[in-house]
User: Fold this.
Amino acid sequence: AQKITQTQPGMFVQEKEAVTLDCTYDTSDQSYGLFWYKQPSSGEMIFLIYQGSYDEQNATEGRYSLNFQKARKSANLVISASQLGDSAMYFCAMREGNQAGTALIFGKGTTLSVSS
Amino acid sequence: DGGITQSPKYLFRKEGQNVTLSCEQNLNHDAMYWYRQDPGQGLRLIYYSQIVNDFQKGDIAEGYSVSREKKESFPLTVTSAQKNPTAFYLCASSPGVGTTDEKLFFGSGTQLSVL
Assistant:
């Protein structure tokens, strides 16, 4: 079974609109972390936002917020006021447990296209 | 500036040839990782290293080898046993402090193609 599921291969939004990118996860660990990364066409991976399993409030970073619903095991990324530069691939990822150097598990990604 | 350097940016492999992808970091991170990215597949873990002189296989280690002789360097060799090596390869590092918020820092990637 997939640990991270991103069901939207592609999303389209107009400038200045908000968009939600879906992510569900599967883990039996009580302690875990959830991450979102952005990958522009250049290929670099840019860290956007982090949410810990014990965090009671949803994480926010500027125009990015994470809608964390622990019981549903979902960690959706919300981008407010989309900009043309937001067009990219977006990956949801998870770290299970807190052992040093544990690798992130990534989803298959969602391609976001922002139009003017 | 601190960061992760991957080289070369583009690499071509002939049939039966081994090729090595370079990854160097000056972030003083203990942990390093190699991921493979195929279109529509997301990132899949090849190998990772939590400390110098130690490394573990990831989900798709077959046909690949690594070494970690120095803290700064984690080269990946794509051997002739890897029958479908064409992909985008990403190297990453993290402090290795053992917290759930430990994010990965990535290099700019190497695109490997088969001639």
